[in-house]
Amino acid sequence: xxxxxxxxxxxxxxxxxxxxxxxxxxxxxxxxxxxxxxxxxxxxxxxxxxxxxxxxxxxxxxxxxxxxxxxxxxxxxxxxxxxxxxxxxxxxxxxxxxxxxxxxxxxxxxxxxxxxxxxxxxxxxxxxxxxxxxxxxxxxxxxxxxxxxxxxxxxxxxxxxxxxx
Length: 165
What we know:
There is one protein chain. The model has no long low-confidence stretch (mean pLDDT 78). By secondary structure, the protein is mostly helical. It contains 7 helices and no strands. α3 (68-76) packs antiparallel against α4 (88-108), α4 crosses α7 and α5 packs antiparallel against α7.
């Protein structure tokens, strides 16, 4: 008797498998069934809709500006460094880059540039001194101004802890 039950189960499994295959098979040429949106190729769906005008080229999104506290923290990280043989070009370039980042952060801060009037003035004067030349030779030539602005900003920020904590 067990053989008949096993055969019945096998027949039922074959029937069920055949039914599932026929339901999932692609429609035949004469079939009334329309493909669903997920089954349609993208270009068929696009062709059914009226042609839309090409979007105009958009400008890239602006890079978010660092917060003052973050920019100041990276500037502070230069306090323990100095010009040493083989390291001076990296050090001066880094101080200049950190001051530039802090300048941008202070100008973009919700408190407004008026809140950071002194540090921004110091950095502006430094940028006038450096001009567009950020070469190692020019940074070395103006090393005392570069380090002086960094140190003055550090002192100023220590008196304004709400700006970096």
